[in-house]
Description:
mainly alpha, 55% helix
Amino acid sequence: xxxxxxxxxxxxxxxxxxxxxxxxxxxxxxxxxxxxxxxxxxxxxxxxxxxxxxxxxxxxxxxxxxxxxxxxxxxxxxxx
Length: 80
């Protein structure tokens, strides 16, 4: 059995919360319009963003390859 004598207790502090009793008000129709974001929504957003990033990367890679090819062709013509 563990002895609690050696545990150091710090002063109790309330949890961080900006709401006080005076701030509490009944729910309104505007409160009910809040959109609930689920893990599925976040995962879909991440997936779409990654697909867009992949498409941009592929396009940039193709453009880079084309530019590099043109540059190499120009260099080879200069060396002749």
